[in-house]
Amino acid sequence: MEVCVLGAGVVGVTTAWFLHNAGFDVTVIERQPAAALETSFANGGQISVSHAEPWANPGTPEKILKWIGREDAPLLFRLRADVGQWCWGWQFLQECVHSRARHNLIQLLNLGTFSRSALQALRSETGITYDHLTKGILHFYTSQREFNAAIKSTKIMQDFGCDRQVVTAEDAVRIEPALKTVQDRIVGATYTDADESGDAHRFTQNLARLCEQRGVKFLWNTQVHLLETLGEKVDGLQISQADGSRATLNPDACVVCLGSYSRQLVKPLGINLKIYPVKGYSATFPVECEDLAYTTSLTDDEYKVVFSRLGNRLRVAGTAELNGYGLALNAARCNAIVDRVMELFPGATNPKLAKFWTGLRPSTPSNVPYIGKTRYSNLFVNTGHGTLGWTHACGSGKAIANIISGKKPEVNFQFTQTL
């Protein structure tokens, strides 16, 4: 059975890997010349099961109102004449009620735990390298209000199997000594020993090479224009390549892993994916002083920024901007990241050497991704992972391979049934 995977980000390539391992003939179609050149290129680097609390929660609407007008706001709705954005925003607000937020947290937590185990098994099997560290993730708080809210969500996570522990400021500095300079401002922290970090770009490119070595075919510089249907099946894929040539492929099944661009491809088929691009930023710095630089992966929940150590680089990423599909860098948001780094870790790096990047996270109002079947018997989706694509990639890939194989994934998650 031949399966086409549409997209070669971290979700698409892990999907291809697990499909091949399940016995399928796999072709990956990617518009870029190599894997992981868009949203998976320079993300925060965290495998963060403990980061399961969705953006849509009861405290978010008040924060959004407080942040209106701030160019450096952690979450910025830049209102546009865009019906899709307004509809997404309304649905987002509906997910902010307590019952929905709790449900979504549990979904993200279960998928994250399953995915982390799948990644660890893949790493053990292949020996793949990607500057990974298994030192856990520390969430630290400089706001008592934010810390109090974190204690509540941590309790829910503990009830569902996530070993996230509440710790003191002193414990936080013991876990990550580089926080010593701001210890007096930390009101508390949480720590998840089992969480990890690593370079998603390097992982995806190395896994794509392993896929190719095992027989997976990649069509680089190839754009998918249209899904042709016949009755209740997808009958063909209209594609074009860099030289302008066009062709139609006729695979037995297709999996859409196109991130923020998934919605446009399937909309003509009557499939409405509630996905909107949320622009995230990152800065990558060289380590200048080893003694002052962090090694444990960190999350600064108040500022919505994460920190990961990738070899001799410091990766700092975060913030969210709803502003369509544009990829222009906003200087104010870049500077906010640099300012926070220098405030927390003075002397660790040279801010003038920062390399900035931005990418579009494919976000659903609930933060829960679409993984599973559509109304077309041979069309599947694995998309909409938002800020947790790297965390959930291996579990999502393994799960969709099981679903296409007719098997039930071994995770308690509400998979898509008939979009």
From TrEMBL:
GO annotation (BP), single: D-alanine catabolic process
Signal peptide: none
An example Gene Ontology CC term for this record: plasma membrane
Example of a GO MF term: D-amino-acid dehydrogenase activity
Location of the FAD dependent oxidoreductase domain: 3-402
Pfam family, one: DAO
PANTHER family: D-AMINO ACID DEHYDROGENASE (PTHR13847:SF280), SARCOSINE DEHYDROGENASE-RELATED (PTHR13847)
Homology family: Belongs to the DadA oxidoreductase family.
Protein's recorded name: D-amino acid dehydrogenase
